[in-house]
Amino acid sequence: MRRTGLFADTVQCRARCTQITIYFVVITANQIQTLSEDVAYIEAQSQGLQVQTANQKLLQTELKSLLDTISISASQLKVLKDASLTKSRGIHDVENTLVQLYTAMLTIDPKLRQKDTRPVTADQASLHRASSIGQSASELSSMHAVREKREGYRRESVEFILRLKQHLSVKFRETEAETLDALERNRNHKTSSSKTKLDDHLRDGPKKDLWMYSPLMLFAREIEPSEWDELLRMYEDCAKRPYQDEFKDNISAWKRMTRKQAADEQDVLFTTQEKEVENLVGRKLTVKRSKTVRADGSSRISSSDKPNDGKVTPYEAFAGALSEMARLIFVEQNFIVDLFHASSLETQEFMDAVVTDPEQRRGGDSIVKKPFDPDRDMAKKVMGAMEEIYAFWTSDLQSLVDWAMKQDPLNSVGILFALESQLSEVEETNQEFLAQTVTKIHDRINTQFTRFVEEQIRGIEDTKVKIKKRKGVIAFMKTFPNFSIALENMLPPTRSLDHLPIRATVNDAYQQINKAMFESLKFIAKENPTATQAQSSTTGDHEDKEALNYHILLIENMNHYVEEVVVRKNPVLQHWNHRALAEMDEHMELYLAAVMRRPLGKLLDFLDSTESLIRNNSESPTIIAARASHSRSTFKKILSGHDSKETRRGIETLKKRVEKHFGDGDDTPGLSRELVTKVYKGCESNYLDVGERVNKIVRDVYEGSLEVEWRREDVIGAFRR
Q: What residue spans define the domains of the chain?
């Protein structure tokens, strides 16, 4: 019993021990887990502190590097005050200091750049990070120091730019004096043939030393734009006078090269005043009529006939002076843009600009076409500089235009061509001063030319009232060939001129003037032949004097136009040439029909009526001979009056009549004889046609039973005699 109780107690004790063991195991496990978490937490905190420490060390390094970058010693800054600006070595030392100064200022204030699109540097990014991390007293003290440095560096920069201004003020004056000396030497050594030429390299020597300061101009533009503007104005003041003197001499030289009016000048304008010979005359132009050579039967081509005396016409003098002066203006603007870096399209940094040794610096291609500057503020600065340097040029150029126009208003065509050619050279470039000045003068002359054409048209129309002798070639028809030659001699061939407005301007003038001429000519010739023709048909008078004179006048004038106007493949002149040919052919046919009736009237009437009957009796034309009015004897009697002798006599009479009508109608040498010959040929052709008609009727109606003495060789011989 006792043993049993002891066993039970032992089992119970063992159970308690097991429970206690389990409890201690659980407690121990929990403690270990808690300890592990504590260890992990401690390790994480340690790593965070290490990263933070590393970041602080990195930031400290960056801040130290930043401070080193923006720190410039007093001895370095002293170079800006003491270094020579006349020697290459001194400029080199100054630029090295300015590079440090420029870098420091950009690091402190990236907004200093003119170009906002440039990326931010690492130093600038470090500065911004430093300003946003921490608020300790030492950091605030550092940022305050940076701001002080910024203000100090700006003062140093401005003081240097002011020193640069003083130096360049003297340098620009020296350049002006050297340029004037070079101009004087050039003037003294020029020959008479070279005085109209301007040397665009003459200023290369005096300007050579200015290129050393080109990077400093860029520094001034970036740091203190207002002082850069002042530098540009200083240069303008010194550049103006040499150009003014040089351009004045050049214009005078071109005027002296101008050919004086020739003694054999011809009338080329339609503005009218009556001559003693009851004709009209225009004002005169110094133009020598080109020799003409027959080209294709319908037009003439011109061969140059300019005097080989080295002289030029007024419009050529203007074109030459404009070309010479415009080239120098073009080169000068490129020089200003390159030297002063006056372009928003420039990508060069100041640090890059100073790489080249000062003595080796040169400008770019002085005649290269630079693109249009999208920065209108910068473009206005360049435009203002050019307007100041060449303030005299617009009035000088206009005075030259007025001088040329005073010689003769037709010179406006050559002047317009020169101006438009110059404008085409500066299209889509930054040469706005040249473009605007030339455009202004061009528009003024274009307006004057429009008024000039209107005056010529009024002169043509006034002829209808003032003319007294309605015979021969009318004055304006004589004038137009010389007028068109004078204009075309001022222009290159049509195909190479299509891109310029002057071609359309002149063609439009041709169109208006020709329209006025043709309308006025028909008015003068009393172009209303309907009533006259009706009267003729009722009275049986086939030679109405007014109608005949009408045809004669139109034939003479249209022939003069066709023979004398040089077409040169001009579409407007070709159109009016074809119209003149058509008019001449129409009235030549009517004239021939009228004058042929005097020697052949009865025969023609018989032939016309017989041919009409043949058309109505085409199957048996012989029955026509049975008619009393068309009997064999009737036709024989008519033919008897047209034997060989009478035919020759009739032709001689007709030739004398034609000679009377056209022999002296055109005072142009040889032209009247050519027209008489044309009319003779027309008469001959009609006579031969009459002979063929006679032979056909004899054969078809009278079955060849009549003898015809109308021989072809007699007709040809009579007209060729």
A: 2-70, 88-258+314-394, 273-311+431-589, 596-720
